Amino acid sequence: MPEDDAYLATGPRVGIRFIERGDGERFTALARASVGLHHPWLALPTTDEAWETYADRLDVPDRAGFLICERKTGEPAGFLNINNIVHGLFQCGAVGYGAFAPSAGRGYMTEGMGLVLRHAFGPLGLHRLEANIQPGNELSLALVKRHGFRLEGFSPDFLFIDGAWRDHERWAITSDMPVR
To answer: What is the DSSP letter of 43?
Structure first.
């Protein structure tokens, strides 16, 4: 069992920590086990080469990648990345996230997202987070709704996913809204 000081923040059942390069073997194994859960909404790195590319993209100042881990075991239950972080007058980032299949449906992502939101609006100093979600992705929509994100718009042909440009709903939360 990992010590709580290994985490940036903890809740009753999960802790969050930054994704590290050494997480590659476990992350890719969990990603391979989760392909059915994520398709067609999300494609995660499932090979060592894809992991290196993914880790390189997180290793820049405008991104922060978090693992959501079960506190009892330290096992990753999911992840949440904040991408395209802009400071200054904007203080905004875009979130991308997913549960790993062995832990899906247990509420770990709900608890973990709350911890990441508090970290983003606290230590990271952000004011706004956006989530762009394909309209049919009911699990992802339910997660942001549970946290009080508000629907702000619709973006046709927003992201190229699974071989096609996909429409997305734009959801957002700001630091002055209650984090659930």
So the answer is: -
